Each structure stands twice: as structure tokens, then as C-alpha cells.
């Protein structure tokens, strides 16, 4: 265990690519249970979380695209107008996969947008 802790001290940054909601929920559960159980006991099941680590050279982040189905009463045109106040929207996005950082695709009304 000491060797493992030593190794983690060498890690400059750690990113959760998937499962961040589960990790946050596990933290909340552990905090609540610690409050109920005042004894410091690291062997309790809520003090552990299952995780796997991969070096960045073995990690592939998949496309972050969205299929829009419910426009909350808006027409597709009004929806595009509304989101254009926060995003740069381009029609006829043929690549369908982000070509650079912070890009994502949106499928709306049978067409792709960037």
C-alpha cells in the first residue's frame, strides 16, 4: 500500500473521462455514512471505489454528439436561433465527428450540425 501511495504522489493530474457522476455519488455516500459512523475505519465498504487507470496513450475519447428529439415546443428554426446565442452553429456538418477541441455534432431533423 505504501508503494501505491508513493506512486500516486508522482501523478500531476488525473482526469475522469467516464464515470464522474458515479464518483461524485460515491463521495456523497461516503461523506454521509462517515457522519453516521464516527469511528475512523478505512475498511468500510463506502471508503472504497472501483477504478481503472489508463495512460493517455491508450485512451480514446469518443465523439460527444447529441441527437435532439424534444424541442420543448420550438420549431427547429427557433431552436437553432435560440442556441445560436450561446454556440456557433454550422449546417451540413458532413464530418459528423469533431475535428478539433470543443467541437461537437448535433443531429436535428434529419440533418447534422456542428
Descriptive tags:
single chain; 114 residues; mainly alpha; 3 helices
Would you mind describing this structure in some detail?
The chain has a 3-stranded mixed sheet with strand order 1-2-3, with no helix packed on it. Strand 1, helix 3 and strand 2 (106-108) form a beta-alpha-beta unit. The radius of gyration is 21 Å and the shape is elongated. It is mainly alpha-helical. It has helices spanning 2-9, 20-36, 76-83; strands at 66-67, 106-108, 111-113. The model has no long low-confidence stretch (mean pLDDT 83). It is built from 3 helices and 3 strands; from the N terminus they run ααβαββ. The longest helix is centred in the N-terminal third of the chain and has 17 residues, at 20-36. The protein starts with a helix and ends with a strand. The chain is 29% helix and 7% strand.
Amino acid at each position: 500500500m505504501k508503494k501505491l501511495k508513493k506512486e500516486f504522489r508522482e501523478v500531476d493530474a488525473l482526469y475522469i473521462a467516464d464515470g464522474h457522476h458515479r464518483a461524485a455519488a460515491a463521495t456523497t455516500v461516503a461523506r454521509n455514512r462517515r457522519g453516521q459512523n464516527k469511528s475512523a475505519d478505512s475498511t468500510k465498504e463506502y471508503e472504497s471505489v472501483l477504478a481503472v487507470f489508463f495512460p493517455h496513450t491508450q485512451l480514446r475519447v469518443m465523439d460527444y454528439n447529441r441527437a435532439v428529439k424534444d424541442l420543448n415546443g420550438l420549431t427547429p428554426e427557433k431552436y437553432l436561433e435560440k442556441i445560436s446565442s450561446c454556440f456557433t452553429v454550422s449546417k451540413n456538418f458532413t464530418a459528423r465527428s469533431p475535428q478539433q477541441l470543443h467541437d461537437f455534432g448535433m443531429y436535428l431533423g434529419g440533418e447534422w450540425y456542428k
